Amino acid sequence: MQTYEQELQQVRKFLLEHDDYLIVSHVQPDGDAVSSTLAVGWLLSRLGKKFTMINEGVIPKRMNSLWHAAELINMSEQSPQRSFNTIICVDCADFDRVGRTKELFTEDAVIVNIDHHPTNNRYGAVNVVLPEAAATAEILFDLLNLFDIEWDVEIATAIYTGLLTDTGGFRYSNTSPKVMGIASTLLSYGVNGPELAETLLEEMTLPQLNVLVKALNTLKMSSDGKVAWVHVTPQDMVDSGAINEDLEGIVNYPRNIQGVEVGILFKQVNTGAVKVSLRSAGKVDVAALAQSFGGGGHVRAAGCRIEGELGSIMTQVVERVKEAL
């Protein structure tokens, strides 16, 4: 079993020895996924390597100002007319989470897997997986420092974005002394921390507020007050003018109720599928729970997609959470 440092060195060696990379992350990329994808792209650009960045899903608009964000292709809208045999997966807990981008992989594709999810099954030919890392961006900070490349404010901002979003503004339990040390270093490179916090964590669009109101109107709690959940339907999305990224953070509202151990957001995709987001105060490993439904994530934050009718899925998941408690 290799150490973390040995895994990083193996990735460094791989990046130097190969070329023409496809960089991908998970479907519907969040802050850490986007910033990690762009950070790898920035590194490869400095190494003089050819690369393509692609995801299945739109990146959040508030991240459009990050380095070369406009070059991150949404496979739902367009796709390169070619395949790749050298793949870098970032922030992707399991292979299926790359979504349709796998259609671009050759049969003999070699995958580099860089991730921090404890449910990661090390699916790459080269893996660097550090579950105790707050974000994949934290791992990339360590990787970038193995290269003789000068940092600039753009790459520092990308890494800071991943840390900021995956730690909930440095409030979650994954905010380690190392994370704060990295943040301090990044600020010294010129990162505008207050501006990023305002843009990424505080600002809300009117559609985002409207869909939040609709979700909170569905709030239900278990009889013991330890489980709370809300749901959003496709009609709610239409009526509020919301898009998928507007749902980010809604799951924290039921979770933040005093005494609640697990908060849940059920997002009905269509009449036959529901996306489930789970947040835990610590007593329940929601990653294990999500994994039992084919999903994954972290001990305190996880998710899955379940085929079926909304009402029955809500009952099933809530009962499973109660059992876990």
Features:
six-stranded mixed beta sheet, single chain, six-stranded parallel beta sheet, 325 residues, globular, alpha/beta
Write the layout of secondary structure elements.
Blueprint: H1 4-17, E1 21-24, H2 31-46, E2 51-55, E3 73-74, E4 84-90, E5 105-115, E6 126-129, H3 136-144, H4 153-166, H5 177-188, H6 193-202, H7 206-216, E7 220-221, E8 227-232, H8 234-240, H9 252-255, E9 262-270, E10 273-280, H10 286-291, E11 296-297, E12 301-307, H11 310-324
Parallel strand pairs: 1-2, 1-4, 2-3, 4-5, 5-6, 8-9
Antiparallel strand pairs: 7-8, 9-10, 10-12, 11-12
Structural features, described:
36% of the residues lie in helices and 21% in strands. It has 325 residues and is of the alpha/beta class. A six-stranded parallel beta sheet has the order 3-2-1-4-5-6. Helix 2 runs parallel beside helix 3, helix 4 packs across helix 6 and helix 7 crosses helix 8.
Radius of gyration: 19 Å
Strand order of the largest sheet: 3-2-1-4-5-6
Tell me what portion of residues adopts beta-strand conformation.
15-25%
Strand count, sense and closure of the main sheet? Answer: 6 strands, parallel
Summarize the structure.
The protein is of the alpha/beta class and 325 residues long. Helices cover 36% and strands 21% of the residues. The protein has helices spanning 4-17, 31-46, 136-144, 153-166, 177-188, 193-202, 206-216, 234-240, 252-255, 286-291, 310-324, and strands at residues 21-24, 51-55, 73-74, 84-90, 105-115, 126-129, 220-221, 227-232, 262-270, 273-280, 296-297, 301-307.
